[in-house]
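Re: that backbone. Tokens:
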């Protein structure tokens, strides 16, 4: 089941993002900042968060939002799945759901950014398997030896 974010999801999502072993503590805090915006700022339209549940527990989530000053472009800010549930199609379901949601908002392009570090290899592979294409790379973006890799997925 994929549903809107609820206040009680905050703790489990923080634990889930940290448990992936991919994100730094700073990145976990950034994820929480976006979660807090959705929870605490009624009517905001910058971020949309949906949560996947399995057996009554948080299994994963995504966060998307329209890219300012574009027509139909959306950013995929976060997608994360409980590591204990990897390989069960939850990431695929979340991506399908995000694509349908974005299409329903007249979206035509999703942009996802990630790191070139080896610990993000599974993430990069996920994007490629899901029909995203590498559209840009900025060398040494995050820090020396850590490139920004940008993926795009056209929905039309």
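Recovered sequence:
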């Amino acid at each position: 089941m994929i549903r809107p974010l609820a206040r009680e999801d905050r703790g489990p999502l923080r634990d889930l993002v940290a448990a992936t072993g991919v994100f730094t503590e700073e990145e976990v805090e950034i994820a929480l900042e976006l979660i807090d915006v959705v929870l605490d700022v009624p009517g905001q339209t910058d971020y949309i968060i949906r949560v996947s549940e399995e057996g009554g527990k948080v299994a994963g989530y995504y966060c998307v939002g329209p890219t300012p000053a574009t027509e139909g472009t959306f950013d995929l800010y976060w997608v994360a799945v409980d590591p204990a549930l990897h390989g069960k199609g939850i990431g695929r379901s979340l991506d399908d759901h995000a694509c349908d949601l974005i299409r329903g908002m007249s979206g035509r392009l999703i942009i996802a950014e990630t790191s070139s570090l080896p610990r993000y290899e599974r993430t990069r592979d996920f994007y490629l398997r899901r029909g995203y294409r590498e559209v840009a790379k900025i060398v040494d973006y995050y820090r020396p030896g850590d490139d920004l890799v940008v993926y795009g997925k056209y929905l039309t």
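The chain has one domain: 2-113. The radius of gyration is 15 Å.
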